[in-house]
């Protein structure tokens, strides 16, 4: 009888130990699962914060790219301005040396933001670039026609209501480009139109000066 009681107690103790062990394992699995979820959440939060910094970094680099383009354009415009034509040769030479030095220092800064494109976006970019280049290559043949065509391309790139016609074909091509490429195409057209406007002003001023000179000559003859 005693032996039976001892065996029963031993069996009961063994069952309790098994239950405690099972409970410990469950608790262990539960705690590990919670800990892994916390770690995963923290890592995801860190990556989200890094993504914001990466985008800010790319935006800053893009801004530097634009600043470089603007600086080079401004230096070039000064070198080809009417004011440079109306100073002494010695002063013009000195100013050109300074401008060339500034241009050289600007060109030493290399900033490049690569755009991720699929095959279709790459093809669209090449097509859009070719369409702009074709107009640029004919600028000297017909300045006014080139300006009208560039304005129609620019109208296809802006969300504002354009004053003139829109090149529908160019618009469909630009839509197929990556967003960053669309912005660069628009900036290039803006630069070209500014340069054309400056050229027209220079031509008008030159014609005005020629007209004034002819009138002065005629008045002297009279």
TrEMBL record:
Single GO term (MF): protein-folding chaperone binding
Gene that encodes the chain: Bag2
BAG domain boundaries: 124-204
Segments traversing the membrane: none
PANTHER family: BAG FAMILY MOLECULAR CHAPERONE REGULATOR 2
Disordered, as annotated region: 1-27
SMART domains given in the database record: BAG (SM00264)
Protein name: BAG2 regulator
Alphabetical list of InterPro entries matching this protein: BAG2 (IPR037689), BAG_domain (IPR003103)
Chain segments annotated as coiled-coil in the UniProt record: 40-67, 179-209
GO biological process, one term: protein stabilization
Keywords: Coiled coil
């Amino acid at each position: 009888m005693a032996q039976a009681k001892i065996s029963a107690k031993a069996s009961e103790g063994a069952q309790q130990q098994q239950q405690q062990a099972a409970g410990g394992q469950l608790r262990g699995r539960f705690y590990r699962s919670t800990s892994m979820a916390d770690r995963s959440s923290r890592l995801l939060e860190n990556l989200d914060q890094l993504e914001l910094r990466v985008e800010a970094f790319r935006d800053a680099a893009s801004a530097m790219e634009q600043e470089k383009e603007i600086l080079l354009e401004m230096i070039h415009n000064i070198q080809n301005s009417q004011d440079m034509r109306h100073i002494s040769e010695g002063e013009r030479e000195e100013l050109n040396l300074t401008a060339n030095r500034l241009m050289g220092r600007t060109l030493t800064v290399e900033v490049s933001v690569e755009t991720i494109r699929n095959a279709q976006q790459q093809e669209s970019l090449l097509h859009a670039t070719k369409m702009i280049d074709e107009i640029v290559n004919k600028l000297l043949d017909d300045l006014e026609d080139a300006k009208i065509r560039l304005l129609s391309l620019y109208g296809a790139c802006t969300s504002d209501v354009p004053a003139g016609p829109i090149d529908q074909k160019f618009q469909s091509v630009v839509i197929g480009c990556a967003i960053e490429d669309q912005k660069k195409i628009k900036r290039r057209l803006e630069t070209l139109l500014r340069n054309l406007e400056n050229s027209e002003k220079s031509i008008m001023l030159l014609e005005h000066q020629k007209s004034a000179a002819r009138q002065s000559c005629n008045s002297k003859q009279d």
